[in-house]
Design brief:
This protein has six helices and 14 strands. The protein is α+β, with helices and mostly antiparallel strands. It has a seven-stranded mixed sheet, sandwiched between helices. A five-stranded antiparallel sheet has the order 13-12-11-10-14, with no helix packed on it.
C-alpha cells in the first residue's frame, strides 16, 4: 500500500474524499492527530491523543458501485480483530462494525463511496478507521460511553507504526479474494466474534428503532431479527443500542 502521512488533519476520510481523483488505488492516509473525525451516522469520533491511529484506505476496485463493497467494513472489522488478538486480548464485534473489549469500544469504522456525476461514475471507496492504542483511564473516563484502549487491556504501550503495518498487511492478504467472494469469505470469522447472536436487541436506523431477537447474519452481512410478532427482518444498516 502507498502511504500518505499527515501531521494533523480534521478528518482522514474527508481529506481522502477531497483528493480521491489524484490518489492511487490502495493508498492509506493516516495521522496521529485527527481533530474532527466522524463515526457512523455522523457521530463524532473523539481525538484522545497522538498515540492512537486514525486512517483511511482509498480503494478503487471498479468504476461502478457493487453491493459487495458495503461489506468492506465487515472485512476490516475482522482484520482489526485478528490483529488485536495477536496482542493477547479478546475483541468482540458489535454489529455491524464496532469492536469492543470487555464491553468497551476500542475501534470504529466508516466507509464512504464517492461518485463524480449524474452518470454514476464511481471514483472509489474511502474506508476509515480509528483505533484506541495508547491512553489513560483518566482520559477514557471523560468519554460519554464505555471505551478502552489496547495499552489498558494489555498492560503495556503499543507501537502505533507496527500496529498499523500489521493491519495493512493483513488487509491486503485476502482483499482481492474478498472483492470476488464477498462476506461469505469471512462470515465464519465474523460470527465467531459476534456479541449479539440469539439476544434481544434494539437497532436504531436513523430515527426508527426496531427490536427483536437476533437469529443470524445473512450471507450479505445483514442482521436477521425476529420481532415480537414472529416476523423476520433483514437489516443492512443501523446500530445496535
Amino acid at each position: 500500500m502507498r502511504r500518505v502521512y499527515l501531521e494533523t488533519v480534521d478528518s482522514t476520510n474527508k481529506w481522502a474524499k477531497a483528493h480521491i481523483e489524484e490518489l492511487a488505488d490502495k493508498t492509506v492516509i493516516y495521522t496521529f492527530n485527527q481533530t474532527d473525525g466522524r463515526g457512523r451516522l455522523d457521530r463524532k469520533w473523539c481525538n484522545i491523543g497522538s498515540d492512537n491511529i486514525y486512517a483511511s484506505i482509498v480503494l478503487k476496485p471498479s468504476d461502478t458501485m457493487r453491493e459487495i463493497y458495503s461489506n468492506l467494513t465487515l472485512y476490516l472489522c475482522v482484520v482489526l480483530s485478528e490483529i488485536m488478538e495477536s496482542y493477547g486480548v479478546k475483541p468482540w464485534i458489535k454489529w455491524p462494525n464496532d469492536i469492543q473489549i470487555n464491553g468497551k469500544k476500542i475501534s470504529g469504522i466508516l466507509a464512504e463511496g464517492v461518485e463524480v456525476n449524474s452518470d454514476g461514475y464511481f471514483k472509489g471507496i474511502v474506508l476509515g478507521f480509528g483505533v484506541n492504542l495508547n491512553s489513560s483511564e483518566e482520559v477514557m473516563n471523560k468519554i460519554d460511553q464505555p471505551v478502552t484502549s489496547l495499552n489498558l487491556e494489555t498492560g503495556y504501550e503499543i507501537d502505533k507504526n507496527i500496529f498499523l503495518e500489521k493491519v495493512l498487511d493483513r488487509f491486503c492478504l485476502l482483499y482481492d479474494r474478498f472483492i470476488e467472494e464477498g462476506f461469505l469469505l469471512i462470515k465464519e470469522d465474523y460470527i465467531k466474534r459476534a456479541t449479539f447472536l440469539n439476544k434481544e436487541v434494539s437497532v436504531k436506523i436513523f430515527d426508527k428503532i426496531i427490536s427483536g431477537r437476533v437469529v443470524g447474519v445473512a450471507d450479505n452481512g445483514a442482521l436477521k431479527i425476529v420481532d415480537k410478532n414472529n416476523l423476520e427482518q433483514s437489516l443492512l444498516i443501523g446500530d445496535i443500542l
